[in-house]
């Protein structure tokens, strides 16, 4: 039987909160405020830390945030790279994807080289073993957005 001290119990996450927030745009307004407030976390501390950690990214780029909440109302968070759909739309220079995917022609085109650059940039956050499998995953995302991939 393993004995767990009170100190180590405090560092076991009680809950993990998942949010999608624009880089550098965390404010106490929804969705951040209500999500953190219901767990008794200091919202202002999170907003300052998040905005400082994402200042190197383009302002407003949507990133996923995983916030580990501990029993003593402390928290740690991890920030991923911007979401794939945002990176694909930015590379294709479009505001939004196709509203009728597969029924009309492509809304934009990307080269395989551009797709490989996005895959290499996003690789650590993707569920892929190598860049080639990450490229195949991004091809599917591009197809659903109405973006055609040229070889």
TrEMBL record:
Domain Large ribosomal subunit protein uL11 C-terminal: 81-149
Gene: rplK
UniProt keyword annotations, A-Z: Methylation, Ribonucleoprotein, Ribosomal protein, RNA-binding, rRNA-binding
PROSITE patterns: RIBOSOMAL_L11
The keyword Ribosomal protein belongs to this UniProt entry's keyword annotation: yes
Protein name: Large ribosomal subunit protein uL11
Large ribosomal subunit protein uL11 N-terminal domain sequence ranges: 17-75
Gene Ontology CC entries for this record: cytosolic large ribosomal subunit
HAMAP family reported for this sequence: Ribosomal_uL11 (MF_00736)
PANTHER family attached to this UniProt entry: 60S RIBOSOMAL PROTEIN L12, LARGE RIBOSOMAL SUBUNIT PROTEIN UL11M
PTM comment, free text: One or more lysine residues are methylated.
Subunit structure, as described in the record: Part of the ribosomal stalk of the 50S ribosomal subunit. Interacts with L10 and the large rRNA to form the base of the stalk. L10 forms an elongated spine to which L12 dimers bind in a sequential fashion forming a multimeric L10(L12)X complex.
GO-annotated molecular function: large ribosomal subunit rRNA binding; structural constituent of ribosome
Biological process according to GO: translation
UniProt cross-references to InterPro entries, sorted A to Z: Ribosomal_uL11, Ribosomal_uL11_bac-typ, Ribosomal_uL11_C, Ribosomal_uL11_C_sf, Ribosomal_uL11_CS, Ribosomal_uL11_N, Ribosomal_uL11_N_sf
Keyword Ribosomal protein appears in the UniProt entry: yes
Domain of life: Bacteria
Family label: Belongs to the universal ribosomal protein uL11 family.
One family name in Pfam for this protein: Ribosomal_L11_N
Described function: Forms part of the ribosomal stalk which helps the ribosome interact with GTP-bound translation factors.
